[in-house]
């Protein structure tokens, strides 16, 4: 049975989770969610997976837009995994709503705790703490793969309704629309070597290189890939990120991130 897993990932957590699930299923193909989006994504596989991070207790804008394009996958087994640093709230229900609107159905949805990557608020966890989280995730990866293999329907993880209403309702709706222009806070420092990785790794073509240096185009997804993967830490987001420890999934290299 063939499976296509579409993944969106800024710092490798969702990509690593997609890879680990793929390793437990037969004939699974990974496809990066990136712009420009195809008009009609290839949903010819028997099963469709969507793996992505939680942003502001909800769906990243690009994932919402992409999921709405999967309509040709109606009637297929669709599963989703959302990776999060603290709390996923009603993210999977939000995805379910987008799919239902497009005539599809989310068959199963899982949250997967991973190290948080929001460096404007906190630095990366120490390696041993990261490792504990990765170790804890192994059982759930196996459980997800088993559920998908069985084609089990109906389990869509969610939190308490009141917390969901505040976080995924109120705060998400107030905040998500501001992310595209929040890139005004990014800047580069003179240590920039003009390597261009920031522009290549951006999943939504939001970085134009001007004389080799990044210029953000205000249709940002907030994934922080540009900042986190800069090999000399020359990209900052406001002053707070200066000197703060970057996060990248330790088993995902830049080449894998850039693979198309
Ligand atoms: C813009 C942004 C918003 C985030 N919001 C949340 C959140 O609301 N709740 C949470 O638990 N984690 C949040 N995170 C953390 C990520 O969901 C988490 O680290 C995820 O695993 C990153 O996946 P990636 O490495 O595939 O990009 C946020 C991260 C970013 C960059």
Order of strands, widest sheet: 2-1-3-4-5
Question: What is the CATH class of the largest domain?
Answer: Alpha Beta
CATH topology of the largest domain: Rossmann fold
Gross morphology: globular
N/C terminus separation: 23 Å
* Mean pLDDT metric: 96
User: Can you tell me the residue ranges where pLDDT is under 50 for at least 5 consecutive residues?
Assistant: none
Question: What characterizes the major β-sheet?
Answer: 5 strands, parallel
Radius of gyration: 18 Å
- Structural class per helix/strand content? alpha/beta
- Our count of domains comes out at 2
Bound molecules: flavin mononucleotide
Q: How many beta-strand elements?
A: 9
So how many helices?
8
Per CATH, the superfamily of the largest domain is Flavodoxin domain
CATH-scheme architecture of the largest domain: 3-Layer(aba) Sandwich
Order of helices and strands: EHEEHEHEHHEHEEHEH
Strand content: 15-25%
């Amino acid at each position: 049975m063939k499976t296509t897993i579409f993944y969106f990932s800024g710092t490798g957590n969702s990509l690593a989770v997609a890879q680990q699930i793929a390793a437990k299923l037969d004939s699974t193909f990974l496809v990066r969610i990136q712009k420009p989006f195809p008009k009609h994504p290839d949903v010819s596989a028997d099963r469709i997976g969507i793996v992505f991070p939680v942003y502001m207790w909800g769906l990243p804008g690009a994932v919402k837009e992409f999921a709405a394009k999967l309509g040709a996958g109606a009637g297929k087994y669709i599963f989703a995994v959302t990776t999060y640093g603290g709390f996923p709230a009603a993210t999977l229900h939000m995805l379910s709503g987008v799919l239902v609107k497009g005539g599809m159905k989310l068959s199963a949805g899982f949250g997967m705790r991973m190290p948080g990557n929001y460096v404007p608020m906190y630095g990366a966890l120490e390696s041993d703490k990261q490792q504990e989280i990765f170790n804890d995730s192994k059982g759930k990866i196996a459980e997800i793969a088993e559920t998908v293999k069985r084609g089990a329907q109906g389990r869509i993880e969610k939190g308490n309704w009141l917390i969901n209403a505040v976080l995924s309702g109120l705060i998400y709706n107030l905040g998500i629309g501001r992310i595209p222009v929040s890139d005004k806070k990014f800047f580069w420092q003179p240590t920039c070597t003009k390597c261009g990785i920031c522009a290549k790794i951006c999943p939504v073509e939001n970085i134009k290189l001007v004389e080799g240096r990044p210029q953000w185009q205000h249709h940002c997804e907030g994934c922080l890939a540009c900042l986190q993967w800069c090999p000399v830490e020359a990209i900052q987001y406001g002053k707070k990120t200066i000197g703060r420890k970057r996060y990248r999934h330790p088993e995902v290299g830049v080449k894998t991130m850039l693979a198309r």
